[in-house]
Each structure stands twice: as structure tokens, then as C-alpha cells.
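Write out a record, focusing on structure:
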Amino acid sequence: MSTSSVPSARLDVEIRPGRPPLLPADAVRGMAWEEFRTALRGLVTEHGAVLVRGFGLGSPTDVEGVFRGLADGLMTEREAFAAREVYADSIYSSSAWPAAQQMCMHHELSYACEFPGLMLFACLVAPASGGATGIADSPTVLDALPPDLVDRFAREGWELVRSYNEEIGASVADSFGTDDRAAVETYCRANAIEFAWQPDGGLRTRQRRHAVLTHPVTGRRCWFNQIAFLNDHTMEPDVREYLLEVYGPDGLPFTTRFGNGDPIDRDVVDLLTGTYEQHTLREPWQAGDLLLVDNIRTAHGRDPFDSPREVLVGLGDPVRVGEQR
């Protein structure tokens, strides 16, 4: 990610308790594009995220132009855990996740060998209530967790186990962009994913990843994973019970384990989600808002909502595992 910045003292950034840094669009209106880009990316480096209000994004075309101009390249998503609508090349809807359910805090694609360094969000339709994209500072979350738990995950990493079929969760085609077995196997081998085709045609995968990364710019240790979000204990209890009854523990669409394969108990998952919640910043969406998030430093999630909500997403600044210090 770029380290250049414009001093934030030049910009009218609102820092408010419990809310993300907010920049009124008038503070950057009239800037030349390169100055605007440098200013916003500098604020992301400084604060971990910034919400630009009053930017006036009104269509997917508007969003695509801004996303491509701000990011150092946009990724095509692979290994998705939920379907997205594709608006344009590498411009997506937010993940299809039940509106009534909380989407736990996470770092996008932290289970993949290539992940975005910068997340870009744009709101075209704001829900009447709920639906905020909350954010949490990862070094702060790490410091708040029990040191012995952090040490174990830092030492062992974490394991993601997935089961793909045509009935639940993301399909093979949704996740890998193809259902061609040879292409899927080639991808898995290139990305350190163990795989096994099942007699019914389904696919099971297993991958071990780092739980803690050092930020490439700040040098701070970051709690960077989806251990809590993709654990089966965060499913709605009746959904989890049904899936276990029908598919068994090895057939769940996803779950997470300690790096040595040990199961992660509910109390650990509750501790992680509770710690995130203590440090989450929220601001209700308004139509036209633009939110930029440093995906290594800052986790994000989504609150439940009860009305139409249209938020577009870009996965910017691709990073390969090993490129960060």
C-alpha cells in the first residue's frame, strides 16, 4: 500500500467517540484528482479507515470510476464464502448474508494467499435502520486479547475447513470462478489448500493460515484472520443444529480450528466476538457515502438491517502472503 500522505491537519476530519473518522466531502471538493487520492490514502494510513460523507456517489458507474482511481489495482475475488452480484469487472455487491443476522468482524480474504490491502465501500441505498459497516482497529483488538491465546494462534496459525456442495453455502463455481475440476485443483495446489473430492461430487478443503501479521507500513502486529466469523459457533443456533444433523461436523459449509486441528470452543469464539464489539466503531450509512478501510489494520463487519440496502465493494491493493513484513 502507498505510504504517501497529505497531513491530516489540512483536512477537516471529525474524530468522534464510537464512530469512524469522518471526512465531509466539502473538505476535498475542488482538489485535483491526484491530490484527492493522496489525501484519502494518507488518512487511511493514519487512521486505519475513513468515511467520506456527501461525496454524492449515485450509480455503479460513479463507484467504479472512484474505486479504480483510488486503488492500486482491484482484485477478482476467489474463495468467496457467500455469493456477490457482479456490477462490473472487480466491482461487487456486499456479500449475500441474511439481513437479520450479524456479520461478525473480519479481515477480507484473510484465509487466502492473496488478499486486499484496501477495502473500498460505497453506499447507493442506505437502509432505514441498521446495516452499518462497523470497523475495529486490529492492533487494539490484539492487545485486548489474552496473551496466551494470542501466542497460541501466533505460533500455530488457524485452520479453515470448508465443504462445498450444491445445497448450502457457496458452490465450487461461486468460490473458484469455475467448476472445472482440473482448474480447481490447480488453484488449490498453487494456494496451499488441501482438497478432497467426495463421492457425491462435493469438495472438502483445508487450509492453514497466519492469525497475526505485521503491518507493512506501521510495523505493528495485527490480529488478522476470520477465526470467529467463519466458525460454526457464530451460525444461528437452529441453523447450526440443522446442518450438523443433516451433514455432520465434517460437512459444514465452513468452520475454523486451531492451527494444529484442535476444535475451537464456543467460549473462545465468544471472547473474540466480544472483544471486537468492545472496540467497534459505527456510523449509519447515508446514500453517496464512501468508506475506505485498511484491510490489514482494520477489521470490518455488518449489522443486521430490515430494509433495502445497496453497498458496493472493491477489493483493492492486492497483497500476497509473505509480502508484508
